Amino acid sequence: MDQAGRSVLVAGASGLVGQAALRRFASLEGWTAIGVSRRRPPEVAGARIELVDLDDEAACAQLIDRVGADVTHLVYAAQYE
User: Fold this and answer.
1) Residue 78: which of 24, 39, 46, 45 has the closest Cα?
2) How far is it, in rounded angstroms, from Cα 70 to Cα 81?
3) Any residues with CB less than 8 A from the CB of 63 and at least 6 apart, and which?
4) Does position 51 have pLDDT exceeding 90, yes or no?
5) How far apart are CA 17 and CA 47, in angstroms?
6) Dist CA 40 CA 2 (whole Å)
7) Using CA of residue 69, residue 81, residue 13, residue 6, what is the dihedral sign?
8) Checking CA distances to 23, which of 15, 47, 69, 76 falls within 20 to 30 Å?
9) Mean pLDDT (the chain, rounded)
10) SS3 call for 67
């Protein structure tokens, strides 16, 4: 399967599962990895980090305006508190 030009948005990038997914996708050739979190997660080489509170509808809309057209995949690993 050709993976060129794919982009993943990982919601919950500061958590255990989100951090692992972000690292994995950032390491794959042809993938763009975007991590989304309220708190700044540890840096991941090759990944872009966006600080957004998923409870903030306006902030989420702004995020989608910035990156939505490029995102082809979503990993939702955010914890609902």
Assistant:
1) 39
2) 29
3) 36, 50, 52
4) yes
5) 15
6) 32
7) negative
8) 69
9) 92
10) helix
What is the 3 state secondary structure string of 5-61? CEEEEEECCCCHHHHHHHHHHHHCCCEEEEEEECCCCCCCCCEEEEECCCCCHHHHH
Residues 9, 74 contacting (CB under 8 angstroms): yes
Query: What's 68's DSSP letter?
Result: G
Residue 13: both structure tokens together: 């990038």
Report, as an integer, the average pLDDT of 23-33.
96
Distance CA 17, CA 78 (A): 9
Say what the pLDDT of residue 50 is.
96
Pairing of strands 47-51, 31-37: parallel
The amino acid sitting at 48 is R
**How far, in Å, are 31, 81 from residue 73 at the CA level?**
10, 24
Under a CB-based contact definition with an 8 Å cutoff, are residues 41 and 64 in contact?
no
